[in-house]
Structures are given as structure tokens and as C-alpha cells.
């Protein structure tokens, strides 16, 4: 059975590249974005590369939008990958970019909560840091390409059944929270 990959915030940046890499691995990819027009254009760009991409609108801050996507995917899942950052790592806490650091710390906690609460089901939930990637957030001086930034994310999204869950990863290695 073909596996489904759902990517949030995928109209640009790392999410867009994750869609491309999953589609090349023969996943059925659902590219989502909060702006339907932007997402449609991005899905079309990948379709023109010969990749089979579906599109669905999703604003992760809008409950109605989340419910609509849930209807579409209920009964599927497998692997959840939360894109975090080492800026949310406890050992790295500073007062610079406080809101961003706290949001990633909360995402890391959420990753552990969900992984623990669904333990025993065949769903793996992990967080990872893509490192410093050349995107709108990362800026043009970042050290990593989109392909490199997507690498660990795609690896976690394609883990086989029984793989690690409830972990924080960088460069395919487990790291401290
Ligand atoms: N780049 C780095 O160096 C780096 C390092 C560590 C971690 N990260 C993490 O990697 C993830 C992806 O970042 P990126 O570098 O690829 O950034 P990006 O190029 O700025 O892309 C961010 C994406 O998130 C979407 N988005 C924003 N708010 C949303 C919402 N409410 N609902 C749905 N989508 C929303 C944006 O959509 P719009 O186009 O509509 O705004 C865009 O598609 C982020 O979580 C970031 O914190 C990045």
C-alpha cells in the first residue's frame, strides 16, 4: 500500500523540499499550506517535475481548517515529525529569540506527550532540528541547502514500523532535549 506523507507549511522552504523528497520515494504526498493559492502554485511546480502531489489547505492555527484535514486523513498516519530546533534545547537556552525558543521547547514537550500517550500503537512521533537552512527564516547566509535541511526529516518520516519514537534528532542522531 502506498504511504501518505502530509507536510504542513509546505508551500516554501524546508516543507516544500520534504514534499519533493517524499514524492521521489514514491509516497503519496499531501502538500498543505495556509494560503490555498500559494499552495496550489507550489504543488503545480512539483507536478511539473513529474511528481504526484495532492494539495489541501491547512492553517495550523485554525480549528476548522484542522478539522477539515483530519476528516481527510483519519485512519491513516504512521510517522509524525515535528520540526523543532536546537534553539529549544535546554542546554542552549538564552534570552535572545525567547518566544521562538519557548515555542520549540513546547513543541519538544508536545512530541514526548503524544509519543507517550500513543505508545504501543503503530505511530512514531519524533522531533528534529534541520540545522541552519537557507530559507526565509534561515536567511541566505545559512550553512545548509534545502536538500540537507530536509534529509533528517525525510528519514524520520520514512522510519519502518518499530522504529524510534519520542526522540529529538539532528543529523539522524538522537540528541538531548
Ligand atoms: N531554516 C532554518 O534554519 C531552521 C532551523 C531550525 C528550525 N527550523 C524550523 O523549520 C521549520 C520550517 O522553516 P523554514 O526554514 O522552511 O521556513 P520558511 O521558508 O519561512 O517556511 C515557513 C512555512 O510555514 C508556513 N506557515 C506559517 N504559519 C503557518 C500556519 N499558521 N499554518 C500553516 N503554515 C504556516 C509558511 O506559510 P506562508 O508562506 O503562508 O507564510 C511557510 O510555508 C520551522 O518550524 C522552523 O522553525 C528552521
Protein traits:
alpha/beta; four-stranded mixed beta sheet; 177 residues; globular; 5 helices; Rossmann fold
N-to-C span: 34 Å
Overall CATH class of the largest domain: Alpha Beta
Number of strands: 7
If you compute it from the alpha carbons, what radius of gyration comes out, rounded to the nearest whole angstrom? 16 Å
H and E string: EHEHEHEHEHEE
Runs in which pLDDT lies below 50 for 5 or more consecutive residues are: none
Can you offer a commentary on this structure?
The chain has 177 residues and is of the alpha/beta class. It has 2 domains: 1-76, Rossmann fold, CATH 3.40.50; 78-177, 3-Layer(aba) Sandwich (Rossmann fold), CATH 3.40.50.720. Helices cover 38% and strands 18% of the residues. The chain has helices at residues 13-24, 36-47, 63-73, 98-117, 146-157, and strands at 4-7, 28-33, 53-57, 79-83, 124-129, 168-170, 173-175. A 4-stranded mixed beta sheet has the order 4-5-6-7, sandwiched between helices. A 3-stranded parallel beta sheet has the order 1-2-3, with helices on one face. It is globular. Residues 8-9, 11-15, 33-35, 38, 58-61, 83, 85, 129-130, 132-133, 135-138, 142 line the site of NADP nicotinamide-adenine-dinucleotide phosphate.
Amino acid at each position: 500500500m502506498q504511504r501518505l506523507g502530509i507536510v504542513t507549511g509546505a508551500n516554501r522552504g524546508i516543507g516544500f523540499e520534504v514534499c519533493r523528497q517524499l514524492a521521489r520515494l514514491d509516497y503519496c504526498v499531501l502538500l498543505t499550506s495556509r494560503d490555498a493559492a500559494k499552495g496550489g502554485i507550489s504543488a503545480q511546480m512539483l507536478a511539473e517535475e513529474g511528481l504526484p502531489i495532492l494539495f489541501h489547505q491547512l492553517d495550523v492555527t485554525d480549528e476548522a481548517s484542522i478539522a477539515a484535514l483530519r476528516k481527510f486523513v483519519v485512519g491513516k498516519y504512521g510517522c509524525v515529525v515535528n520540526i523543532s530546533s536546537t534553539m529549544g534545547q535546554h542546554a542552549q537556552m538564552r534570552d535572545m529569540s525567547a518566544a521562538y525558543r519557548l515555542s520549540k521547547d513546547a513543541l519538544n514537550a508536545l512530541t514526548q506527550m503524544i509519543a507517550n500517550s500513543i505508545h504501543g500503537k503503530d505511530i512514531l512521533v519524533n522531533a528534529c532540528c534541520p540545522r541552519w537552512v537557507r530559507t526565509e527564516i534561515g536567511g541566505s547566509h545559512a550553512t545548509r541547502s534545502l536538500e540537507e535541511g530536509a534529509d533528517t526529516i525525510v528519514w524520520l518520516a520514512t522510519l519502518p514500523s518499530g522504529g524510534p519514537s519520542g526522540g529529538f534528532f539532528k543529523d539522524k542522531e538522537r540528541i538531548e532535549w
